[in-house]
Design goal:
The chain is α+β, with helices and mostly antiparallel strands and 190 residues long. The chain has one domain: Nuclear Transport Factor 2, Chain: A, CATH 3.10.450.100. It is built from six helices and six strands. Strands 1, 2, 3, 4, 5 and 6 form a six-stranded antiparallel β-sheet that branches.
Length: 190
């Protein structure tokens, strides 16, 4: 009888230890919050060590910002932080021509118009590495990158290409100097 009691007490103790271990190992799993794409973009330290290394990566990150503008929900504060991230990617010359407050208003107006027309960016892609063109202009290294956007609209899809000109700054970081919509590249598919 005494032996059975010792075995039962041993099983109860082992069960308590295993149960407590299980409780501790799964304690935080229900409390985890998912970080949104907007928050991921805002939190990336592109002003420091996490700055994109190549012209393609700069345009890819800029496209992530664009997708956040047009596809995601965010607060006014998050919008300004997104725009600040975009301005970090800009060459000093482009940033000087687009003061922060003016840039915020321009982007907000374009985004509001985009959303009013119920458009979303379905896909944004950047040309392959071997399609990036490099040249030296006025003593500065420049790169030319093309990005494609597939946009969902109320009555179909459209595709457009945007050409980016990037220039290396004094810290050897590729910065967006200019960009334009490629002419004749817009197509509608219903």
């Amino acid at each position: 009888m005494k032996r059975i009691r010792v075995i039962i007490i041993g099983i109860v103790c082992i069960s308590l230890v295993v149960g407590y271990y299980y409780f501790l190992s799964n304690k935080g799993s229900g409390d985890e919050t998912e970080v949104s794409e907007v928050q991921k973009v805002i939190l990336k330290d592109i002003g420091g060590k996490a700055y994109p290394a190549t012209p393609r990566e700069v345009v890819k990150f800029y496209n992530r910002i664009q997708c956040c503008y047009y596809n995601e929900e965010y607060t006014e504060d998050e919008f300004k932080k997104l725009a600040d991230q975009a301005r970090i990617l800009m060459d000093e010359e482009l940033a000087d021509n687009n003061p922060a407050e003016q840039y915020y208003l321009q982007v907000k107006n374009v985004v509001d118009d985009f959303r009013e027309k119920k458009k979303t960016i379905n896909n944004a892609s950047v040309c392959d590495s071997n399609q990036v063109k490099y040249s030296t202009i006025g003593g500065f290294e420049c790169a030319y990158v093309t990005s494609s956007y597939f946009v969902r609209e109320k009555d179909g899809f459209s595709k457009s290409n945007q050409n980016f000109v990037l220039r290396k700054d004094e810290e050897n970081r590729w910065k967006i100097l200019a960009f334009e919509l490629a002419e004749g590249e817009v197509s509608d598919n219903e």
